[in-house]
């Protein structure tokens, strides 16, 4: 199986930046797409971004595409989410997810493995 562990969350003021990391272990050779999702209290889980195994194909939600960047380092089995110009509406628990599919997807059903999440809080 696969284990995912997120890190890098914290408290930041609006306009600031954070970089989240997701370390994968286990049978990572079965994985292709990696994604980031977030969920705020009382809201549905929301797609943030996804990246193919090669890193050449990415997909972003419209709400973050001009501010966030997803990347990966396969030698380290790690995926990153660079978040810039953060807004209070970005406050949520951010989850890393892994899929076997080769194409970046914004659908939660495509993802087989999930991390436990890391809290991001943006103050105004």
Describe this protein's structure:
The protein has strands spanning 2-7, 10-13, 18-26, 34-39, 46-51, 58-60, 68-73, 78-83, 92-98, 113-114, 118-123. The mean pLDDT is 95. Strands 2, 4, 5, 6, 9, 10 and 11 form a 7-stranded mixed sheet that branches. It is built from no helices and 11 strands. 0% of the residues lie in helices and 49% in strands. It is globular. A hairpin with a 4-residue loop joins strand 7 (68-73) and strand 8 (78-83). It has 124 residues and is mainly β.
* Total strand segments: 11
Instruction: Provide mean pLDDT, rounded.
Output: 95
Helical segment tally? 0
> Can you give the helix content as a percent range?
under 10%
What is the CA-CA span between the terminal residues? Answer: 40 Å
Which H/E pattern describes the elements?
EEEEEEEEEEE
Beta-strand share of residues: over 45%
The major β-sheet equals: 7 strands, mixed
Oligomer: single chain
Runs in which pLDDT lies below 50 for 5 or more consecutive residues are: none
* Global shape: globular
Report Rg: 13 Å
Indicate the structural class: mainly beta
């Amino acid at each position: 199986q696969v284990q995912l562990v997120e890190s890098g969350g914290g408290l930041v003021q609006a306009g600031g930046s954070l970089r989240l990391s997701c370390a994968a272990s286990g049978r990572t050779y079965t994985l292709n797409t990696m994604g980031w999702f977030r969920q705020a209290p009382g809201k549905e889980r929301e797609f943030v971004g996804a990246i193919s195994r090669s890193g050449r194909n990415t997909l972003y939600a419209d709400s973050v595409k001009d501010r966030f960047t997803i990347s990966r380092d396969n030698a380290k089995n790690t995926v990153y989410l660079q978040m810039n110009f953060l807004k209070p509406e970005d406050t949520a628990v951010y989850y890393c997810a892994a899929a076997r599919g080769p194409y970046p997807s914004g659908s939660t059903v495509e993802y087989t493995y999930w991390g436990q999440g890391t809290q991001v809080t943006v103050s105004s």
